[in-house]
Amino acid sequence: MRSDPGVEKSLQELERRSAEAGQPVTVQRRAALRALVRHLDHPTAEAIYADVVAELPGVSKATVYRALDNLVELGLARKVHHQDSVTRYDGNSERHHHLVCRGCGRIEDIASDALDALPVPELGRNGFEVHDVFITFQGICRDCRRASRARRRSK
C-alpha cells in the first residue's frame, strides 16, 4: 500500500483536474482514488470496489466503476490491459512502463529513461494522433519460474 502523503497529493490533483474539467469531486471518486493509490499491485475494479465499500457501505458497484472511468478520463489513473486478464487499474500517473507475468498475471511498474527516449514513429499519414506511449514487457516472473522448476524436479 502507498503512504498517505501519496494519497493526499493524488486527492489534491483530483480537486485541481476536476475543477479544470468543471466536474464535481464526489465522495465516491475520492474513495476510489484513495483505494487505487494505496495499492501497488494494479488492482482490478473488483478489488477497488471492495476497498470502497468498506469505507462507504452501500455504494453500488456501478458507481465505483463510473468513478474509476472518471479517474482515467482525468488522467489520474490508467487502465492496464494484458492478454487473458481482466482490466486492472494503475494509480501511478507518472510516465512508466510495465512488466507482465504470463504465468500469474502480476503487473509491475518499470521506469526507464531509455524507454522514455525511444522515438515515436510519425503516424499522421494513418490519421492517428499519438497522445501517450508506454511499453509492456511480457514474460515469466521469478516466482513462476521457481514454481515451474520445482514442479519439473518433483516429476
Task: Please tell me about this protein's structure.
The protein has 6 helices and 5 strands, in the order ααααββββαβα. By secondary structure, it is of the alpha+beta class. Strands 4-3-5 form a 3-stranded mixed sheet, with no helix packed on it. A two-stranded antiparallel ribbon has the order 1-2. The termini are far apart.
Described by the principal axes of the CA atoms, the overall outline is: globular
User: Beta-strand percentage?
Assistant: 5-15%
Low-confidence parts: none
CATH homologous superfamily caption of the largest domain = Winged helix-like DNA-binding domain superfamily/Winged helix DNA-binding domain
Secondary structure category: alpha+beta
Task: Tell me the quaternary state.
Answer: single chain
Write down the CATH class of the largest domain: Mainly Alpha
CATH fold call of the largest domain: Arc Repressor Mutant, subunit A
Number of helices: 6
**How large is the radius of gyration?**
18 Å
How many distinct folded domains? 2
Name the strands of the widest sheet in spatial order.
4-3-5
